Amino acid sequence: MGAKDWNTGVMTINFTHRKHPRIAERATTGPVKTQDVVPKASAVQRLNALIGLKITLVVGTMWCAYAFAAISFSSLPDAISSGNLVVIVQWISSNFLQLVLLPIIIVGQNIQARAADARADATYQDADAVLHEALQIQEHLMAQDQEINAILTSLRELETKLAA
Q1: CB 67 within 8 A of CB 156
Q2: Does 47 fall in a domain?
């Protein structure tokens, strides 16, 4: 930061700012989104991701949950008429809960994923603002260093004149 030559007693400020490599990298990348992590290396991976996404978009709706509930209720009369407690519990667990809860859980996960993307974007914007402020502080400090060096130079000149 500052260096003093002990032989001459002269002090100067000679700080060199080195930017972190991540600053340039983040300027081009932006925040990571869910879609950025979808596998794209091969045609098979892209196809699988596309199929999985399409099925998730269809199954992950409340309309699908309602349809699955209707399908599930179609077998309820048979389960009740059997009079067998095991059959009724099996209908509840395998027919109703599995069919209906699956799309509802996907709906919730989709909402959570959107919230996570929004948080990631907000965090990225916050980090960008902090970086901007830090760069402004760095510029301010460099301007102060220049002024301090000018004052030190003036003081040296005054000391030389007074000593003569």
Answers
A1: no
A2: yes
